[in-house]
Write a structure and sequence with these properties.
The complex is a heterodimer. Chain A is of the alpha/beta class. Chain A has a single domain, classed as Class I glutamine amidotransferase (GATase) domain (Rossmann fold), CATH 3.40.50.880. Chain A is built from 6 helices and 11 strands. Chain B has 2 helices and 3 strands, in the order E-H-E-H-E. Classes of the chains: A alpha/beta, B alpha+beta.
Amino acid sequence: MRSAVLVFPGSNCDRDLAVALERVTGQAPEMVWHRETALPDGIDLIGVPGGFSYGDYLRSGAMAARSPIMTAVVEAASRGTPVLGICNGFQVLTEAGLLPGALMRNANLTFVCKDADLTVVNNQTLFTSGYEAGEAITIPVAHHDGNYQADAETLARLEGEGRVAFRYACTVNGSANDIAGIVNAGGNVLGMMPHPERAAEAAHGNEDGRRLFESLLGALQSA
Amino acid sequence: MKARVLVTLKSGVLDPQGKAIHHALEGLGFPGINDVRAGKLIELDLADGVEDSAIEEMCRKLLANTVIENFKIERLG
């Protein structure tokens, strides 16, 4: 499985994501600089990492979403290539229009950094098939702008179409319906605020995130 | 030539910063504040001849997230 991890100035989780992908897939991802205009050939998965691209200036993810490589990412996503956006990556994907809604300042205005208890709402996606539906898992969060908001119609559509992948078990940041992660209509784009790459091996003290990468590997190998 | 872009949250969009400012003003004893909304001011120093339509495109493409924000352009002469 060949994966690509985008590299933006200011991001600090690109390497963590690359390490997690390499451990699970056995193959080191291609690191793709934001100024590139094309992805390497034969990429099976695009990772948009967490961590304050462009210092979160203007709005979280806004400038990264308009960087040259994102045109290629949007094209690949529309062809069905899986795209995984974590934390700032989720913000980038909403800003790029690949996912609906917006990530706003946390409702309590504080940076939240802790283990978050989540519920796997939909396990019928490329990213979540390794979990049980309704399973309680724990994945770390670390963000200032994780308050997912969308208009009532969009929220109803997300819920009705089973596009909420993960929900916080308790309120973490004020997100509408306690949404922690959503997929696009095609099911090939996932954005989530929690960091599965920080719960991907025994040394992290928690391997709940690892199964997300294993789910992807399984789905892509059988495809 | 300068232009100012005022970016504000659409009405109905939760504004935690506005709420915090509101709360702080009340804490200082100012009565009669119905609501507070916080926004952003972006000042552009532009070459002569940059059209309003170009500034509007800047707003739509980058400066405002039109999912949640409105923008207003002011020319400063």
